[in-house]
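Lab notebook, bench 4. Still working through the backlog of constructs that have no structural model yet. Next entry is a single chain of 84 residues. Request: give me the structure tokens for it.
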Amino acid sequence: MAKVTVRYWAAAKAAAGVAEEPYEADTLAEALDAVRGRHPGELTRVLLRCSFLVDGDPVGTRGHETVRLADGGTVEVLPPFAGG
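Model written out:
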């Protein structure tokens, strides 16, 4: 399993109660499952509206189960931002 850091921004950070935390997962889907397990409730709802960056690259519409994570990598959780 890859050891990754999940970083939360804006509403995701507020719902998680932390700015970042470590997880072990091989895919983005596994990491997000672990996040939902650790933070049931509001963060689970916020994740439905989020986009994700893995090591700085946008995930876009790719299936989360197809996005491999690298050891030491970073997953950025980005809720929609208001304003412009």
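Notes after review: The helical segments are 10-16, 28-38, 42-47. The mean pLDDT is 95. Flag for follow-up if needed.
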